[in-house]
Structures are given as structure tokens and as C-alpha cells.
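User: quick one
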Amino acid sequence: MASGSVLVIGEPAEGAVAPVTLEVLGVARPLAQQLGVPVAVAVLGQDIEGQAAELIARGADRVYLLADPRLAPYQADAWVPVLAELVRDTGAPIVLLSHTQTGREFGPRLAFRLGTGIITDCADFQLDARGRLRAIKPVYGGNAVAEYTLAGDGVQVASLRPKLHDPAPAVPDHQGEVVRPPVRLDDRQIRTRAGQRVRSALAGPDLENAQRVVAGGRGVGGPENWRLLEELAEAIGAAVGASRAAVDAGWVPGPLQIGLTGAKISPQLYIAVGISGAVQHMAGCQGARTVVAINRDPEANIFKHAHIGVVGNAKEVLPALTRKCRELTGR
Amino acid sequence: MNIVVCIKQVPDPDIPPAEFKVDEAAKQVVPPPGVAPVISTFDLHAVEAALQLKEQHGGRVTVLSLGGDSVRDALKRALAMGCDAAVHLQDPAFEGGDSYATAVALAAAIRKLGAWDLVLTGRQASDWDSGQVPMALAELLDVPGATPVQKIEVRDGGLVVERVTEDGYQPLEMPLPAVLGISNEINQPRYPTLKGIMAAGRVPIPVWGVADLGLTPEQVGVRGSRLVLERLYVPVRESRCEFIEAETGAEAGEKLALRLREARLI
Ligand SMILES: Cc1cc2nc3c(=O)[nH]c(=O)nc-3n(C[C@H](O)[C@H](O)[C@H](O)COP(=O)(O)OP(=O)(O)OC[C@H]3O[C@@H](n4cnc5c(N)ncnc54)[C@H](O)[C@@H]3O)c2cc1C
Ligand SMILES: Nc1ncnc2c1ncn2[C@@H]1O[C@H](COP(=O)(O)O)[C@@H](O)[C@H]1O
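Assistant: Done. Structure below.
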């Protein structure tokens, strides 16, 4: 096998390429270019053949297809040994993945299996004078920013926070190679048994890809007021999200949570209602183009992030806002 | 079932951003004076999960924390919540360690504790937001694991867990022993009772250092770390909020709708 690519590990996805994988490819390309090495993507799963063409069209020089029924649905016990072997065999200097809920699991395990370290949940990457990775990572919920390198001179692993970077743009006429390495997996290594992913019935259609998002926090006051948000969302064609306080209070299910440990969103319009704007919440909507805040407290931190603000009681503002929006949008 | 819970003491994450300060030269956070450190949020959920498992299936819960003198308060609180035993990992050699170096010490302590079935940690600590210790422990102890976990069920001597995904969860079966990183969806942590607090005061908390764990100083702390912190700073954030002026909430709502239309956002 050829050596030395910047290696992107694809988010588990059957069928089409996961959008977050394209975001990682987008940041990997300039790094590979600066290092003067190819960029490769590893795809693991069962029904993955179709992903190669799209990845190559988006600038991948090589796509490793590792197809095996034991690799789908995803489970770390099967993925990590296969990935570790691929990284060792190909001599990748840098391995990048998306910091999704799933990447949080296999990323660190892979790094430690390889005897190296991982910088998790990075906002961006640079290369230092030696060509080593320098990662920029929000810490303390977003209150501070840390810049890290990895000790030693071995392979470097890092994960990228979703929804901060655009997907890799198409490269006209780009040519790439598809490689199908043998999947060598000893069944005794697989101690776990993974089931199919279960979609939470109440999860918004696709919060993470919505162009408009309306979210509520503790200031919404209770589950009985939640319909005020849903009506606004309907009037403007938005997905509904929430702060962790609203999730912890049991008003809405977990997948609606936006923030550091929840959904990452990058809509054109984000309307935050009764949300104080804690850094850990804002970490989920850094990619939002326009942030609108409705909050009773003029000193609330959310107004430091918002472009348009209304100081007022959500219960009074929302019905009028929804009525007028309906009038304007005709919904 | 013998459960070990790892808890980290961190600066209170709820302090207003304006009070958050770093010493850029020392590459350290300067905690605001008078604000006591707390147990990292997800670790409280891990303690609660362990206590519920013990209530359902019997066994013992031992809590471990690596850190300075103040960590004893965190361990006391976990004991007051109902944990049976606590061990404090303290040694100058541990200082400045990243998640991996910390996990090396924790794994050695878990081995020293002897028979254990399950290790629980938080999904990520609320200081460095790293989220590496649970999987580092799984690797070091060579057992299956999962993170972030929102449900644990004991079935046929093994576990069935739900691993959080973006749009729901993935079920996963695994044998014991295992390591799990716990997410807040799993439960509501209990508060210590007065009786619990009194009882906790009487539990001795042994202190284990590098030598007690059979480790060398090179394996832990800054020297055992795989991450090198090159720089630490507070990002500048300029606020540019345009406020909608109105006499009433209803008027503000209408004006906001018009403003959004004008900006072609709706
Ligand atoms: C490690 C870690 C990870 C975290 N991850 C996340 C995460 O992923 N997502 C997340 O959201 N949080 C997260 N948090 C929690 C976060 O720090 C905050 O506690 C949380 O976001 C607060 O939610 P809130 O704004 O709804 O509630 P609060 O902070 O209580 O704010 C409620 C707001 O509503 C306003 N209000 C009250 N009544 C009204 C009214 N009638 N009309 C209008 N406004 C009103 C108040 O002025 C206040 O600003 C995390 C915390 C930690 C430590
Ligand atoms: N110093 C420590 N002592 C005990 N447990 C820790 C320590 N550091 C991290 N942990 C555990 O590991 C989890 C994840 O930490 P981290 O990987 O550093 O984000 C925390 O939520 C704790 O449960």
C-alpha cells in the first residue's frame, strides 16, 4: 500500500457519505497539500461501495473501502482493530475524524491502541514549522481556547467539531484511487454486540441540517408553554431545539439538546428563547449565521452572542411574533 | 456487582464568562476567588448510576479521584450520596497530567482495588472537555466499553447499554467487566442526606501515590501525557446586538417579525 496520506475516517454511514465526513475532508485537504501528501478517506461498513465516487469528486486522492458485515452496525470492538491496522500499514502521519457522539468513542480508543494521543473536539488545525499538527480546541465549555500539539513524533489523531466548517467543495475532474484492503478481524476481538441505531420518535426532522432553528430553555417556563415555540417553528419552517436545562427538566427528549454535548447546528437563523447563553450552549451554534435572542434579562449572556435581541417575556413576545410571521410567510 | 466510579473535581463551570480568567504565561485557569470547586457534572450522573445498580443488584461502589487536597471534599460528597469506599490518588508526580496520563494512574488504582465488574466515568470532564478517560481506561484494562451512555441494564450477567447518538441511541450488549462513560440523560443525581453526610465523615479515605500504584513518575503527570498544551487564552468576543425597542412584549414580537422579514431571514 502507498504510504503517508492524511487519513480521514468516515463517520459510520450506510449508503451515502455522512455530511460530517465531508467537513473533515474539507479541513484535511489543505493540510495534506501543505505537507505535500495525498488525502485518503477510510470508509467502514457493509453497504459502502457507493461512497467512493462522491469522496473522490470532493477531492479524496484515495478511498479505502473496508466492507465487512461485522463492521455494520458500527461497534468500537470491530472498528478499532481494523482502523489501527490500516493506519499502521499506510503510515498515515495524521488521522482526522468528526467529533460526533460516535467519534467520541472510537477516536480515543484508536489513538490509544496505536500508542499515541488524540486532540478531541477541535475547531481548527494548523501545521507548525516541523509539519506537526497544531490543534485549536475550545476548552472550559468555550470560555477559553487551547492550542495543543501531540508529544513525540508518531501518528497524530484529532477530531473536528461538527458544523464549523463547510463540506469539502467538489474538485472538477478529480481522479482518485479506490483501494479495498482485506478486512482482517478476529471474532474474539469483538466482545460486544451492537444493535441497529434507534431514532428517537420525537427528534426534530433534522435539527442539525435545518436552515432555521427555534430553541427554548428554562425561561420557556414549562412543557405547557412549549407549543408556543412549536407554533413559531411551524410559522417560519424551522426545526425545534432546546437547552440542556429544558432537556434535564424532562420537557423535551435528549436529541433536541443543542450545545457542547448535544446537537451542533449551523442554520441561517437561530432564535433562542429563554436561554441564558451559557458557553456550553453556544458551543453548539457557533455556525449559526444570525442569532436572535428573546430573554427577560437584559444582562443575559445570550445578548453577547446575539445579532438581534428582544428583552421581554417569552410568553408575551412569542404569540405576537408567530402571528406576524404567519401573516408575512402565509404559512 | 463491584463498581468503581471515577470522579474529577473541577472549577465551577457555571461562573459568569466575565469572571473566567486565565494566566497565559502559566497556561493555567485562574479560578475566581471564593468559588468552591465542584464534582464535574457528568461524574455525579455516574455516581448516581452506580448507586442505582447497587440498589438493584447488590455489591459495592468505590469512588476514585485524582487531584490535590480539595479533592477530599468531592470524595466525601460521593460517600455521602451512598458510595461505600473512596480512594484519593495524590502525588506531586500526577500534576499537569492529561486525560491519558490520568487514566494510567486510575487504571493502576482500579487493578490494585482487585475484583471489579464495572467502571463508570463521566462522558467528559467540564474543564478541558476532553472525553478520553473512559476509552483510555477500556484500552488500559483491555475490556469492552461504550461512551456516551444514557441507559444501563444488567442482563444475563452482562450489560445492555444505550449509547447516545445524534438522533437517538444505539443498543450495545457487552460482557463484564466493562468501562462506561456516562451522559446526563441517564438519571437525576440524588442529593446527599444528612445521615449520609454523617456516615461519610467516618469513612477513612486512603491516599495512594505513584509508588503505591506500582508506577514510575515518568508514566504519569506532564511526563506521561500525550498532549502538549502550547497556548491557552480567552477568546475575544465582540457583542454587536441590535435591540428591538418596544413598549410591550407583543409590540416587540411584531417588530421582530418585520425585522426578520426585512433581513430576508423568514
Ligand atoms: C460540561 C458541560 C456541558 C454542557 N453541555 C450543554 C449543552 O450541550 N447544551 C446546553 O444547552 N447546556 C449545556 N450545559 C449546561 C449549561 O452550562 C447551562 O446550564 C444551560 O445551557 C442553561 O440552560 P438555560 O439557558 O435554558 O437555563 P438558564 O441558564 O436557567 O437560563 C434561563 C434564561 O431564561 C430567561 N427567562 C426566564 N424567564 C423568562 C421569560 N418568561 N421570558 C424570557 N426569558 C426568560 C432568564 O433570564 C435566563 O437567561 C453544559 C454544562 C456543562 C458543565
Ligand atoms: N483526575 C481525575 N480523577 C478521577 N476521575 C477523573 C479524573 N479526570 C477525569 N476523570 C474521569 O474521566 C471522565 C472524563 O474525563 P476527560 O476524559 O478528562 O474529559 C471524567 O468525567 C471523570 O469521570
